[in-house]
Amino acid sequence: MKRSGSPAPVGFFDSGVGGLSVLRAARRLLPRENLAYFADSAHCPYGGKSRVFVRRRALAISRFLLDKGSKAIVVACNSASEAALETLRGTFSGVEFVGVEPAVKVAQGLSRNQRIGVLGTPLTLNGRRFSRLMECYAPGMEVHTQPVSGLVELIESGRFDDPRTEATLRENLEPLLARGIDTLVLGCTHYPILLERIAAICGPRVDVIDTGEAVVRQLRNRLHARALLNSGPGPGHVEYYSSGAARTVAPVLGAIMGDPSLKVITVPV
Ligand code: DGL
């Protein structure tokens, strides 16, 4: 039987703009795909909230993205993947959900001195998925975790070059660097937006791991296995939605995506 691809969009969501670090990788690696991005700006940040709250948001947003015809959903947020991925798969059976998690396994393979650092939100670092990752990959390694607060809010307000952002990065990175880590896992999708600054503070001896491309490769494999890759000519387009006010959210999304005319539709999800 000949199986054909699908032009339906792939849905992505995050508490705010962080998932764009994954979406950008999807634009590079899957340029024909149509994408729909939802920023839950009215409820950002997720990292200090309860699992129950984040799970409820993930269910509502997934329902919205599926109503828009999404053929698969990327939970482009470590915190939401921790709180909701299993529930999403159980609730919307048959739908392909791709989640993200801190790349401890990759770090284990990369680290020369087996001393790694992980930056993440409290929700992610205290979660069951992270404990499982530690059980599987951390024995024999020194893993130093750093729960970060305040950084997501600075990124959400577009303060990429702000002295407060620099100070927050240094406050969180210096304790890890003082432990002699040679590999740093970015366990929150917001952080790769500041990848250049983070890499500059860490210096050339530290490898900084952004999982965006690995997540998109996994998405590509899953779409391929289900014959859902878009076989149309492309290029695909992206639609942006947010629970927050479009006039405040759009300029930040636009700055990250390099598109000052980017349009955001506010939806009461
Ligand atoms: N970007 C998200 C993550 O990967 C959420 C951060 C937050 O909202 O606190 O965890």
Descriptive account of the structure:
The protein has 269 residues and is of the alpha/beta class. The chain has 2 domains: 10-100 and 213-266, Rossmann fold; 104-210, Rossmann fold. Helices cover 44% and strands 17% of the residues. A 6-stranded parallel β-sheet has the order 4-3-1-2-9-10, with helices on both faces. Strand 3, helix 3 and strand 4 form a beta-alpha-beta unit. Helix 1 packs across helix 10 (212-225), helix 2 (51-67) packs across helix 3 (78-91) and helix 8 crosses helix 9 (195-202). The termini are far apart. 46% of the residues are buried. It binds D-glutamic acid.
Give a quick rundown of the structure.
This protein has 269 residues and is of the alpha/beta class.
Q: In CATH terms, what is the architecture of the largest domain? A: 3-Layer(aba) Sandwich
Average pLDDT for all residues: 96
Bound small molecules, which ones?
D-glutamic acid
Terminal CA distance reads: 39 Å
The level-1 CATH class of the largest domain: Alpha Beta
Q: What class, by secondary structure content?
A: alpha/beta
Instruction: Please give the count of helices.
Output: 11
The figure for the number of domains is 2
Tell me, briefly, the overall form.
globular
Number of strands: 10
* CATH T-level fold name of the largest domain: Rossmann fold
> Fraction of residues in helices?
40-55%
Q: Please report which band the strand proportion falls in: under 5%, 5-15%, 15-25%, 25-35%, 35-45% or over 45%.
A: 15-25%
Helix-strand sequence: EHEHEHEHEHHEHHEHEHEHE
